[in-house]
Prior knowledge:
- It is a single chain.
- By secondary structure, this protein is α/β, with parallel strands linked by helices.
- It has a single domain, classed as Alpha-Beta Complex (YbaK protein), CATH 3.90.960.10.
- The chain is built from 5 helices and 8 strands.
- The strands form 2 sheets. It has a 5-stranded mixed beta sheet with strand order 4-2-3-5-8, with helices on both faces. Strands 1-7-6 form a 3-stranded antiparallel beta sheet.
- The longest helix is centred in the N-terminal third of the chain and has 12 residues, at 2-13.
Amino acid sequence: MSRERVLQDARERGIDVELVERPAAESLEAAAALLGLEPRQIVKSLVVKRSDGSFLFALIPGDRQIAWPKLRAAVGVNKLQLPSAEAALAATGYERGTITPLGSSTAWPVFADSRIGGRIAMGVGEHGLSAFVDAESLIEGLSATVADIAS
């Protein structure tokens, strides 16, 4: 199961993870309410495709969107795009809505928005399940590049 991959990868990286089951949510805002969080405390893990066919993860606060010019500048490329759902699954081993860099089938580089901090929730590779982690531990454990990449 995905949760075992996430937990094993987190252990190997020295990241403490607390898994919390929750009912299905219709939106990020609904998921935040179910978890007793503000939307900004849920971090979206987005898989992004480079023009060379490789991928990266962008970690974005739930109340924000990717700022494409800022992300391109941080990555140092002229072109990035969101892949199809099928390509995202193939690149990570996770379905959209559950994607996380932890336990991904390939350890793609991670770019984290500079606004992420404190205790956050994120996907675990399974629907109806969230992971609570300390943002600083996550960023350090993933060797993420921190930059202003959201608007």
